Model the fold of this input.
Amino acid sequence: MASTSSGRNNIQGHPCFGGNRHKNGRIHLAVAPRCNIQCGYCTRRHDCVNESRPGVTSRIQTPKEALETVRAVMKNDLGDIIKVVGIAGPGDPLANEETFETFRLVGEEFPQLIKCLSTNGLLLPESLDRLAERGLGSLTVTINAIDPVIAGRIYKHVLYHGKRYSGREGGELIISRQLAGVERAVELGLTVKVNSVLIPGVNEQQIGLIAERVKESGAFVMNVMPLIPQADFAHIVPPSPEELELVRTANEKIIGQFRHCRQCRADAIGLIGQDSQGADSGCSISQLAV
Done:
């Protein structure tokens, strides 16, 4: 069993890890367009500034443009509340070299900001040493199943080192990489949050198993999120707030539950639930590589 993360002194004030979310904000930098898996509930083609969901951004930035965004935000009225700079897509950050360059640039100029990353975990074990070198303080890994057959239903395909996997084989691969990554991250002193998308009729019975497994691996907190019906799962009715709360309460006996998630955009800026995107108004089609 992994020991509990010792790195929490690196995330003081992080609104997703116990910091005051009413006073502490974050910047998400959309520098990572490419993804290495295809989740059945994910579509990243459409963007409207009125949307708030993972995978949405008004435009992709280069690392240098992202640094300019941080500079601008830190100079304006939001500067006093920003505690975290995070990269959460719109693809998977670890499938994009721009992620590492962005953290390097921002870290050199704003060392006081907590660095945070959200990933599907496929490339996590082999990326952690580089992330630690860049001062990453916290990490979120999305884990939706422990059973590889169920994972194979959720992930249409997994692209790993030039080879495409699907079904049970793809499920086994991504689960093994996710769990190994969580354990290694904890060993390196990172504080780990695990996201799990609750998909009625697909993975309800997996949520408790995920909670037990990641708690054993040293994860700090779990965030059970409701399905946003779209793509292959557009026909599924999402869990009600009451159903979601029942699942969270049941799993709270195993691991702490994060309850104020708003399933943020990849370019969110500000307080959770009170974001101010730098996007132009209106809707557009994002040209994202998969």
Q: What stands out?
A: Residues 103 and 121 are 18 Å apart (CA to CA).
